[in-house]
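for the writeup, i need someone to sanity check this before i put it in the appendix. the sequnce is what the collaborator sent (i think, or maybe the updated version? ugh). structure was predicted straight from it, no edits. if anything looks off just tell me and ill rerun, i have time this weekend
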Amino acid sequence: MRTSRVVTDSCNYFPSFCKFSSSFPAPKCSSLRPSGPSLLSPTHLSKPQNSLLLFLRSHLKPYFTTSDLLRVLKKMHFNPHLAHFDLQVFYWATNKEGFRHDHTTYEWIIRSLALRYQFPEMQKVLDDIAASPCPCSEGIFSCPRLEAIYIAVINSYCRVSRVNEAMVVFEKMCKFIDGKPPVVACNILLSALVKTGRIESAKGFYDRMLRIRVFPDVYTFNILINGLCRAGDLGSAFGVLREMRSRGCKANVVSYNTLIRGLCGQKKVEQGIELSYEMLAAGCMPSIATYEILFERLISQGKAATAVGMLMDFAGRGAVPPGLDYFNLVAALCRAGEVGSAMELVNGMWDKGYVPNVVSCTTLLDGLGREGNWEEAAGLMSKMLDHDILPDTVTYNLVLEGMCNKGRAVEAERIRLLAIRKRLDSDAVTYNIIFDGFCKEGRVEEGVRVVDEMLDKDFIHDLRVYNRLMARLNKARKPAEHNQS
């Protein structure tokens, strides 16, 4: 009885909604389609519809404005139980006496329907806009927000590659808005044509833009360049670049990167490098993507040395973006046995302020270790630690072991202590490597200090292990004493 009274009160409060909801189809995502007589009585209301009535009653006055309705629609959007009723509420308000939608409610419902890809419903609302213009239209002039509404519809069609339907909406927009269509709408259509492989149609649409005096911007030209490069028509793509300059539109990094990628795709990497210098001369700084495109092609052609020369040259000009990762270049040099060149690259870039990442350094350490060049490896490790670049434990222990095998246990211990200060702790393997190194060199006192530290760190768990370590130290002491005598 209590629920029935609440429903009855709600229906008395919004009688027009109760009547309207009986004939309006339920959303496809809901299985709660109204049934029964044309005039919906309280007993025929489903639980979701009753919740909606209560929601409207608590958030809307009997006489409300478009601002009030928009606020309610936004709240419904974030309510999973009510979001799918937004179109039903929108049309209920349409039929309410004295109420008239404006661009705010039209745009909101269009965008909501676009997100759900409800194209027939979206077209119906678009036709309603044409039949019942926004109240803010002044005389013969259309609403200034009409463009944004049409752009939202065009974009929703283009996202799912329904370009022909987007074109129909574009034609409607040209008919109902004041003046020329916005370049944003044209770019959306142009991009959709390119993505669907209709490059000739894209050229024709661009020509139409010029005929109706829609001035292309940098995005327009970049879309065309991308489409032509994907089609393998580099000549026309560079023609667009020239036209871009002739119209006073400055090419950006996307323009150049697209052309460079196109050249590299056709194995014209030398021309790609030339274009990178041209973009720098034009005042356009290369991006990380610029280098990655060129490095990938040069490495695949076995021309890592050319990439190194180019990178060092650009670094000298201050044209290398922060965060550039040249790991692939270091790895390619190491794979080719040119570890010395890789070392020169890392040190050269480091000296110019381009600090390598831990992956590049680890790769170089591995290359130096394979060549047995532990002195260089130790120097690189120290430099890494000084710059708070901490290697992984395996690489770290391999370098220490290499140093100890070369009779450089003291230097290995210095690196270990530096690593501890940088919060790279030693593990059991580390201690055993250093201990073995001191034993081989007969450095008993240093070995004792290592054992004491192992005890403090709880790496020696029983007396037998301790006795075995001390026995090794005693064995190492005798050759040392013999050498001194």
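The chain is about 70% helix and 0% strand. Confidence is low (pLDDT under 50) at residues 1-10, 22-43.
thx in advance!!
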